[in-house]
Amino acid sequence: MNYNSTRNKGIRLTASEAILKGLSDDGGLFVPESIPKLEKSMRELSELDYKELAFEVMHLLLDDFTEEELKKCIERAYGDNFDDEEIVPMSFADGTYYLELYHGPTIAFKDMALQILPHLLTTAAKKNGVSDEIVILTSTSGDTGKAAMAGFADVPNTRIMVFFPDGGVSDVQRLQMVTQKGQNVSVVSVKGNFDDCQTGMKKILQDASFKEEITSKGFRFSSANSINIGRLVPQIVYYVYAYCNLLRNEKISEGDKINICVPTGNFGNILAAYLAKKMGVPIDKLICASNKNNVLTDFFETGVYDRRRDFHLTMSPSMDILISSNLERLIYFISDCDDKVTSDMMSKLSEEGRYEITDRMREGLSDFLAGYASEEETAGEIKRVYSDTGYLIDTHTAVASAVAFKLKEEGKLSDAPLVTASTASPYKFARNIVLALKPGEDFGKLNDLQMVDELEKLTEMPEPSAIREIREAKIRHDKLIAMEDMKAAVAEFLN
Predict the structure, then answer these.
(1) What is the pLDDT of residue 445?
(2) Which of 11, 224, 343, 417 could be 7's S-S partner, Cβ–Cβ 3.0 to 4.6 Å?
(3) Residue 225 pLDDT greater than 90, yes or no
(4) CA–CA separation, 325 vs 267, rounded Å?
(5) Separation between Cα atoms, residue 450 and residue 453, nearest integer Å
(6) Residues of the chain with pLDDT > 90: what percent?
(7) What is the pLDDT of residue 32?
(8) Which residues have a Cβ under 8 Å from the Cβ of 124 and sit 6 or more positions away?
(9) Are 74 and 58 in contact (CB under 8 A)?
(10) Mind listing the pLDDT tens digit for each residue in 93-148?
(11) C-alpha to C-alpha distance for 360 and 312, rounded to whole angstroms
């Protein structure tokens, strides 16, 4: 299996080389030359535990890793660091199966990929004879940063630097990042929004002279964002596992289709579900759920992607994105893998702020439904689901739940079982959860950790250990910079 750049099919790398590189030199993202089919039936796969299933899925896409290498990476990634032995349990509430992706060490779905990426990356370096110190650059809208740092902290021969938007993450998310331990870790807040952080990081990764300079000093750049194919491949696994869970528990029969709803920002999580479908998982519709920053909803409805709009800070900050990087991979697939078409559209997005796909490409979007939820609808969905069922969902999952509920009411969604990706613990966004459950009450004087206490009293759900750890943790990172100073910050980090 070779990997091409979405912008130049002449670039061909092995899986391990693509993981090491992160982003192609031409700015494109790496995609497999073809999407392989699952080798075993869904019934056979349903008999496997999560780690066994991960190997069956991942070895098809990462085929230059030996069986021993890949199984060792999987074994190290998914173990006691998750608080549920099933790794991704599912809960049924309000007619929906919630796929709980937040039982890892940072209580967000990013752990599902970022607990294994450091092992894939260091194994890839060894396979390719790379002795340089690997420098991970990552921009985050809230969860990726902490999950990446938790995975890479004190991993030999690596360093990681995370950029997050000042004021653009929840206080719990911020505290999780700025208290991160590790001799090889740096966290910097940037004046701007997530798109500014992501754009600045990509510019650094594409700066040929800067890369040459750091290479001469024994460093090599890579990324832990979902632009790295090593992030995307592990995410496919949990959608296969969701189907297997339903099959194993006799909620469906083999071959029955399911619908999947994903709260979506950078498009990586739902793209993983799309790839699971292409690999053979019986999925009917993929529901792309957006918050008030509904650039993706407009794209699926009109075929026009236009980032020239107001940017909104919402109660679901990990989705506060106007440039959804992973959509580039979908554009490539629906253009019949035409690298020139993809490159032209990405140039238009960069230069003009918009692009429009062809009618033929729009036919390739038939796998998807899309919708968005306002702030009021998101808060209302948290309260509705909890009041009706006693099940508590976070602000991002609530966006997905609200969108799916509307699509059902409008008759646009089939009666196939619905799996909703539950992407974070409600405790990461305690203030907004409490305000949703107790609208009109004044909690203005309480800080976010005090709101965690209120949520615990209100629901009698114990706070996760990840929250307890940050209560008394020391602030280790307090740098605030302008976007144009990001490269200088990297240079300083590398001495």
Answers:
(1) 87
(2) 343
(3) no
(4) 7
(5) 5
(6) 95
(7) 98
(8) 15, 16, 17, 19, 20, 65, 130, 230
(9) yes
(10) 999 999 999 999 999 999 999 999 999 999 999 999 999 999 999 999 878 889 99
(11) 32
Give the containing element (helix H, strand E) for 29.
none
pLDDT at 347: 98
Please name the residue that has the structure tokens 């107001």: 310
Q: Please, which residues bridge with residue 372 across strands?
A: 290
Give me the residue label for tokens 């509904």: 294
N-term to C-term CA, the chain: 38
pLDDT of residue 100: 98
Domains of the chain: 90-106+230-429 (3.40.50.1100)
Overall size of the chain counted in residues: 495
Cα torsion through 115, 117, 119, 125, rounded to 10: -160
Residue 263 pairs in a beta bridge with 289
> pLDDT tier at 444 (50, 70, 90 boundaries)?
confident
| d(C-alpha 259, C-alpha 431), whole Å | 31
- For the residues 349-374, what does the mean pLDDT come to? 97
User: How many other β-carbons are positioned within 10 Å of the β-carbon of residue 324?
Assistant: 27
Find residue 92's DSSP bridge partners: 97
Q: Which residues of 36-56 are buried (b: 16+ CB within 10 A; e: fewer)?
A: bebeeebeebbebebeebbbb
Cα–Cα distance between 124 and 14 in angstroms, integer?
10
Extract the tokens encoding 153. Answer: 């902290």
Would you call 149 exposed, middle or buried from its count of C-beta atoms within 10 A (0-12, 13-18, 19+)?
buried
**Do residues 464 and 444 touch, judged by C-beta distance below 8 A?**
no
Mean pLDDT of 345-369: 97
Reading the block at residue 113, the tokens are: 């990929």
**Cα angle for residues 282, 406, 354 (degrees, 5° grid):** 80
Give the whole-angstrom CA distance, residue 393 versus residue 315: 13
Whole-number average pLDDT of the chain: 96
* Full strand arrangement of the beta sheet holding 283-290: 90-93, 96-100, 418-422, 258-263, 283-290, 368-372
As given in the structure block, the two tokens for residue 171 are 């206080």
Cβ within 8 Å of residue 170, ≥6 positions away: 142, 317, 428, 429, 431, 432, 448
Give the pLDDT mean for 259-275: 97
Q: How far apart are CA 309 and CA 307, in angstroms?
A: 6
pTM over 0.85: yes
pLDDT at 192: 94
Could you give the CA distance from residue 77 to residue 111 in angstroms, rounded to a whole number?
Answer: 9
Share of the chain above pLDDT 70, in %: 100
Q: Can you give the pLDDT at residue 446?
A: 93
As a whole number of angstroms, the distance between CA 19 and CA 22 comes to: 5
Who's near 205: CB < 8 A, 6+ residues apart? Answer: 22, 23, 137, 211, 221, 223
Q: Is the pLDDT of residue 21 over 80?
A: yes
DSSP H helices in 249-322: 268-279, 295-302
Place of tokens 């459950």: 437
